[in-house]
Design a protein that fits this description.
The chain is an alpha/beta fold. Helix content is 29%, strand content 26%. The relative contact order is 0.09.
Length: 357
Amino acid sequence: MRISTDERFHLNKIMQKIVFFGTPKFSARILEELIASGEYDVCAVVTQVDKEVGRGRVLTPSPVKVVAEKHNIECWTPKSIKKIPVDFHNDKNSNEFFRENKDTELFSFLKHIVNEQPLLFVLVAFGMIIPQSLLDFPKFGFVNIHTSLLPRWRGAAPIHRALFAGDTKTGVSIMKMDAGLDTGGVYKTAEICINEEDNFGDVENKLLDISIPTLLDTLPEILSGTAVATPQTEEGMCYAKKWDGDDFNIKWNETAEVIIRRIKTCSPEFGAKAIFDKRIIKIYDAHIVFDNNIKWHNAGEIAEVNKRELIISVGNLQNKQFIAIDKMQWPGKPVHEIKDILNGYKFIVGDLMHNNN
């Protein structure tokens, strides 16, 4: 069978080697697309250690590790990468580090990249600080897909913070990593709109849809040495601290707009928390109610119940507002539309939903 010129070129070309760092589902999808492009040799993957998940505390690999194993790509899960010496690639000078280091995963990974000599490291939501020794190792450095329009929302939770702040747009920045926190120069950006009805999952999916083509458009320029990373300004900079702990708890004395944004920021994976009937409930969707005929109660109290709606008083005496819960979850139960929950549970006007704190 004859092989076409295009096929012969594809078979003979040497794909450029890349190491991929990432952990969650978002990262895993990008890794899949990077592999599927057929343009690059992902010669190693680094992700976080397997975590105990669920009530059974089952040890579970990260989504990125699952993708790496599916494609038979070498995958490492070092416990820490903080103290890698600058000259780790020099056996003579780094022997002491390797003798003292007990993390065989890290030791094996470093030996692997010294042998493979990848040109570029790509990072997407990895979850660890990268030491200067690794930043300096590959010829074309470290590239990060950051899910905001830098310098706005540098930090750990840019999607959460953009949603909760009520931003009407966000995007992705393909940036060259440096020692600072998301302070490196930006190669390319792409933008999306945040619609009023969007929750975290909606925004994340939109960002994923633009991240993959933007990265694939940028990589050839980076690997040819022609890409220019534009330095960031400090104008408009703000910090996206981790979304955690009390961020998931509804505060009924906040405005309706803020409560709705909190609920959408927590959905669809986790839900926003409150306490009702001495149980922690999770709310996954809600909307603002504008009705002058409803009597306002104290913040968090049920103001009205009918066959279709569970309406809660929110705000304060100066700002009397209402929200209606659309999706809710009892402990240990699936998420249900509120109309289905109303069929099986009798809510009473005046009953209080407490803050979970």
